[in-house]
Amino acid sequence: MNISVLIMGAKGRMGSTLARMALESENLTLCGAVERPEYSAGLGALGCPVAHDLAELLPVHPGAVVIDFTAPAVSLDSARKAAVTGNPIVIGTTGLSPEQLDELRALAVRTPIFWSPNMSIGVNALVRILPHLEQILGEAYDMEITEIHHHHKKDAPSGTAVKLAQVLAQSRGWDLDAVANYGRQGIVGARPAQELGVHAVRGGDVVGDHTVYFFGPGERIEVTHRAHSRENFARGALRAATWLATQKPGQLYSMEQLLGG
Question: Mean pLDDT in the chain?
Answer without folding.
Answer: 96
